[in-house]
Amino acid sequence: MLKKSFYPLLVATFLLSALSHYLHWGMELQFAFAGIAILFAAGLLGKATESVAHYAGQRLGGFLNATFGNAAELIIAIFLIKEGLFEIVKASLTGAIIGNLLLVLGVSALAGGFKFKEQKFNVHLAGQNASLMLLSIIALFIPAIFVKTEHISVEDTLKMSEIVAAFLIVAYIGWLVYSMVTHKDLLADNEDTKADHGESAGWSKSLSIVLLVVATVMVAFISEWLVHTLDAFSARFGLSELFIGAFVVAIVGNAAEHSAAVMLAMKNKMGAAVEIAVGSSLQIALFVAPVLVFVSLLFGGGMNLIFTTIELAAIGVAVFIAISISRDGSTTWFEGMLLLFVYVILGVAFFFV
Q: What are phi and psi of 120, to 5 degrees?
């Protein structure tokens, strides 16, 4: 259960964010209040999804956490697309992928590793996740290489992006059927049960679902307020769109995954933490990014799937080390530290771009 003091703070930060936005208190204050408010809303979102996982099981719970956690990322991206800020969108998608693979998984492994010497999870799930991560790299890498080496028109680039996006969505749906239906027993953790042994969820099933919806709606509103401050924030502090999208927007948008994955890892439920961190990255690469390509068409523009060389390199590095560390089906605190070091190195490099 969340502490009683959490709820007044949640309401207060939400109201302050709303007031600062509608009363035009200044971009710095608007950004600060929106950033703090979305962290509290994401905390509620994370706790609600953890409570739902208590009733639904770790794998489905992890999937729900990744999905509702990515709701913030998706909502922020839609508002950015509406403003025509395609490069920030792609940078935020890059940041979400590397943030989940390096920051979320790293902090989870580090925090859980300090409490437990070694944390194990389903090795078959780790192998399938590795294959899907490689697919996402191939799907993002190939279009970028062909566009840069051949004279392909803007119209053809958009068509190619739409075709690739469609196949990625089909691949993701296939993964859901494979992991949740046809091979769910093979991919289940040993501790994956409908409810934890004697541990209370804190909330009833119906209240958990209601709070999940409420938190998602709050995140939607705060996300829109946050997006309107990004231009002024980047200009005020001299930060590039790439850094803003890849680190600022991504960290704020992924706050729900951060909190829930770490809490689960500290309860020795590393399988669920991996499902949240890696599953969220896969969902971003195989579903959210492709969906945004089609969403952009609704606003009269056309966002392609052509990422910059820097973004592709960052995603490739994150996928490479995440596969290297997680493929054996176990993690330690030292491996978590290595993931965090790579994240910091990328952050420093992005800052100077």
A: -110, 155
